[in-house]
Amino acid sequence: MAEEKEGGLVFHPLDQFIVKPLFGDGPVQWYTVTNLTLWMAIALLAIIGVFVLGSRGRAVIPSRIQSIGELIYGFIYKMVEDVTGKDGVKYFPYIMTLFLFILFSNYLALIPMSYSPTSMIAVTAVLGFGVFICVTALGFILNGPKFLGLFWMSDAPAILRPIIAVIEVISYFVRPVSHSIRLAGNIMAGHAVLKVFAGFAALALVSPFAIFGIVAIYGLEVLVCGIQAYVFTILTCVYLRDALHPSH
What we know:
21% of the residues are buried. A two-stranded antiparallel ribbon has the order 1-2. Helix 4 (121-143) runs antiparallel to helix 5 (161-200) and helix 4 (121-143) packs parallel to helix 6. Helices cover 64% and strands 3% of the residues. The protein has helices at residues 35-53, 64-84, 92-108, 121-143, 161-200, 207-244, and strands at 2-5, 8-11.
């Protein structure tokens, strides 16, 4: 929101990311129902609406909602199979759940006056570190000490192998950080830019340009929401492939 002051307009584009209690004005505790909680629940209900209620009839000639569900299901299933191989298909439900939560949260956040759960680093960090912990544990469970072969490049010259191993270990532990920050940063940046253009729309002199900017950025955000869900999911598949086949 923009406020007019003596020096002009004052923008607060980051105010939209503040986590607030839905009831009352007290401090936010771990048990407090907040705007973040509300929109995460709405995303969950939307997923249930599309994939449970929308396809409950399992019609041979699908309805529009069932067609959307089947399209998303087939798209993610093929991604998991292509990237991880047949061995990774058994983990498809987990990857599908991640994709749906991120996708629906991103697009629901484009509704005016909504809240974006995936703009919160706390939410994306849980997703990113959750993938990291699960994949690492799975790698050691399935491969034992052989999983450490992921960091040892046997094809490289012997003198370079220790150096490459250190670099690989560092890059491996950076994965959950980049995985979570990439998603939160892109979503937050897009919404902040939209808020800035909306603030400039209050100025009569530049309002036509600001409105054009809002439309352009909003259209870009429609693409970004889908792309970020895809990027997060395909990176999860890549990390899963490394756990299943560390020697590759």
